[in-house]
């Protein structure tokens, strides 16, 4: 089956310009999560900490080539710039062109891996076969052993998805919108069942592969870096509580590595799309990422953070501070005796600092000066902890008092010249990525 090329007069660089720009709204492409060396017969390897950026068309050295195979699409999703009813420049790569780009960019040390997604060309099966052929050619003919993240196409033949999984390091299936009702309204060609089916297939494949590798050392790996997904937030009316419950269910039922939250950007005019006078809901996106961190690493559950009576996060406080202020009966915590899980619930104490506290107190009682050296953010933690039975200052355990003091501590949020703003996570912009990661890391 040959790829339809409606852009035969375009150079490969012209296509690259169109198809990198078309991929910028897909944020689900952080690529850490696997540490796999090449076998010495090909080029490249996948190092867990080495691939965490993307390639930029303006020449900045970012290490992940992020492209669409095609921005042609048979679907008419109301929120998508590539919807079939839009009059935008269209382009399609061939499998050979994607391979050539990846290899040539790798040889020039521009990239270390590939993120490949696609619009739907002709049909899900046709598109998935093209993605499979591309990865097969890149792995087998070009001997590329670097990192590859590819999107599985909902509705495609399960066997094509399975075969592709043996060639990719990570796969993802975009949930798109949090609820079936939202999909029906804004993406009528897409169905929740078709989206969840490949997620389940990938999950089962990962489990089977791990079992086989445990028995047969050289058994082929299936999606060794796991799977992820992306939800658009703000395009439909779901509350933060609904979003968090969806995310928790995805983690619990499909063993996802990551759920990405993409603030809705209005690129189309449509009566069913919300008006955004203040721009994309990027601060909301930021709080959801912080809350997601609590689900994945801090032992929280969605129903602890929010409920039906209080369905949205306080945008002025990070979710852990907000939780602590509503549960002051749990504080103060004595850092020299509290268990690890309790320490994780203290604002200002992160995973690493909690681990260091548990280790350090085996040999001596810790004081506030020791906590600062360990990495505890005392300007947040001091309202919730004691050392040897004493608080750092004469502090009242009162919600209003602590709230006022926490709000006076300026949280580092993504900024831009000319004032404070909250910008959408984009792996096409290494400055934005670093700022967003810095903001998220303040959750402790």
Describe this structure in words.
The protein has 444 residues and is α/β, with parallel strands linked by helices. The chain has two domains: 12-273, TIM Barrel; 319-410, no CATH class. It has helices spanning 12-21, 95-107, 124-141, 158-165, 180-186, 192-215, 240-254, 282-297, 302-305, 319-325, 340-344, 351-360, 368-374, 378-381, 399-407, 430-441, and strands at 64-68, 113-117, 147-151, 170-172, 227-233, 258-263, 333-334, 385-386, 415-416, 419-420. The strands form three sheets. Strands 1-2-3-4-5-6 form a six-stranded parallel β-sheet. A two-stranded parallel sheet has the order 7-8. Strands 9-10 form a two-stranded antiparallel ribbon. Strand 3, helix 4 (158-165) and strand 4 form a beta-alpha-beta unit. The longest helix has 24 residues, at 192-215. Residues 1-5, 46-52, 54-62 and 415-444 have low confidence and may be disordered.
């Amino acid at each position: 089956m040959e790829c339809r090329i409606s852009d035969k007069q375009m150079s490969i660089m012209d296509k690259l310009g169109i198809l990198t720009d078309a991929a910028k709204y897909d944020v689900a492409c952080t690529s850490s999560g696997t540490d796999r060396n090449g076998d010495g017969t090909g080029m490249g390897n996948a190092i867990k900490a080495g691939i965490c950026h993307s390639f930029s068309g303006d020449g900045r050295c970012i290490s992940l080539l992020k492209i669409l195979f095609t921005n042609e699409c048979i679907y008419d999703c109301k929120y998508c710039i590539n919807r079939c009813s839009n009059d935008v420049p269209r382009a399609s790569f061939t499998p050979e062109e994607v391979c050539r780009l990846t290899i040539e960019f790798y040889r020039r040390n521009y990239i270390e891996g590939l993120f490949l997604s696609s619009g739907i060309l002709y049909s899900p099966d046709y598109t998935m076969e093209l993605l499979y052929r591309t990865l097969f050619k890149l792995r087998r003919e070009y001997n590329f052993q670097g990192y590859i993240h590819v999107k599985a196409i909902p509705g495609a033949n399960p066997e094509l998805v399975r075969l592709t999984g043996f060639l990719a390091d990570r796969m993802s299936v975009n949930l798109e919108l949090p609820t079936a009702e939202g999909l029906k309204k804004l993406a009528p060609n897409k169905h929740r069942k078709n989206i969840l089916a490949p997620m389940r297939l990938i999950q089962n494949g990962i489990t089977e592969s791990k079992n086989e590798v445990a028995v047969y050392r050289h058994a082929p790996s299936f999606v060794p870096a796991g799977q992820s997904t992306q939800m658009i937030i703000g395009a439909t009316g779901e509350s933060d509580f609904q979003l968090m419950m969806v995310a928790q269910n995805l983690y619990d039922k499909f063993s996802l590595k990551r759920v990405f939250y993409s603030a809705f950007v209005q690129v189309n005019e449509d009566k069913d799309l919300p008006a955004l006078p203040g721009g994309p809901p990027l601060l909301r996106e930021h709080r959801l990422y912080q809350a997601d961190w609590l689900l994945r690493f801090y032992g929280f559950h969605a129903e602890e953070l929010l409920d039906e009576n209080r369905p949205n996060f306080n945008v002025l406080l990070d979710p852990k501070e907000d939780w602590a202020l509503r549960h002051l009966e749990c504080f103060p915590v004595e850092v020299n005796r509290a268990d690890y899980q309790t320490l994780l619930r203290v604002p200002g104490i992160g995973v690493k600092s909690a681990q260091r506290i548990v280790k350090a107190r085996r040999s001596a009682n810790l004081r506030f000066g020791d906590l600062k050296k360990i990495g505890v953010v005392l300007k947040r933690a001091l309202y919730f902890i004691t050392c040897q039975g004493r608080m750092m200052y004469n502090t009242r355990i009162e919600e209003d008092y602590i709230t006022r003091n926490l709000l006076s501590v300026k949280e580092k949020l993504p900024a831009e010249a000319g004032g404070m703003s909250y910008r959408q996570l984009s792996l096409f912009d290494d400055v934005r990525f670093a700022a967003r990661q810095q903001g998220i890391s303040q959750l402790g």
